[in-house]
Amino acid sequence: FFWSLDMCLGFFTGYELEDGSVQKDLRSTVTHHLKREFIFDAALVSINWAEIWSDSVIIQVLTLLRLLRLLKLQAALNLLKNKIESEVAVLSIDVLQNMLAMCAAVHVTACFWLGIGRTDKGWIHFVDFGDEGLLYAYAFNWALTQFHGSTDIVPHTDTERIFQCAALLLAFFAVTAFVSDVTSSMTKLHMLSGKQNLHLRVLRKFLLHRGISGQLS
């Protein structure tokens, strides 16, 4: 219901023009929403409503497309970064963005692993998980260990082995990119911190040479 309401509110939401002003005219906002986000939102909302009325496997797979809403989060974060003057805050948002992307990748992998495990002779039938509500936790743990770590959950079918090989390969490249981006952001943060400390040392030396008291400085 929330996303259906959000899709409708898009017709009444203003948007920023190239000159920095905000367009609030109703006809313009309706046209802009129809051209930009309406089709995308309508497709995802349709999947949400279809999930309520049907429990078919196809619908369950299509529900993964809801993760495409993260693209809107990406756009919102980019807009936020453009409004922030602090370089430290922008770099912090970049680190947070990478962490959210990694969590999303682990979530998608866990969902696929859980779906594959529900088949005949799947891994679910060989794990004593007790409460069925813990199934996702087991699947998430397995998906997380494909990026780093180990687990006692092993594949039992050819499909599961193929999927695990694909997950390991993708995890290798994902972790490489993640570590590279985070390292780059942390290096930039360290350099900015070093520049600020240098400026403070220069300022303290200037105040000391000018004989300005510590209380006044």
3D structure, described in words:
The protein is mainly alpha-helical and 217 residues long. The protein has helices at residues 2-9, 26-36, 38-53, 57-62, 70-83, 87-117, 135-147, 158-209, and strands at 15-16, 22-23. It has a two-stranded antiparallel ribbon. A hairpin with a 5-residue loop joins strand 1 and strand 2. Helix 6 packs across helix 7 and helix 6 packs antiparallel against helix 8. The relative contact order is 0.06.
Topology (SSEs and partners):
Elements: H1 2-9, E1 15-16, E2 22-23, H2 26-36, H3 38-53, H4 57-62, H5 70-83, H6 87-117, H7 135-147, H8 158-209
Antiparallel strand pairs: 1-2
Helix pairs in contact: 6-7, 6-8
Low-confidence stretches: none
The portion of residues forming beta strands comes to: under 5%
Amino- and carboxy-terminal Cα gap:
57 Å
- Please give the radius of gyration in angstroms: 25 Å
Helix content: 55-70%
**Overall body shape:** flat
Structural class determined from secondary elements? mainly alpha
Count helical runs: 8
Strand order of the largest sheet: 1-2
Describe the largest sheet.
2 strands, antiparallel
User: What's the number of extended β-strand segments?
Assistant: 2
In short:
The chain has helices at 2-9, 26-36, 38-53, 57-62, 70-83, 87-117, 135-147, 158-209; strands at residues 15-16, 22-23.
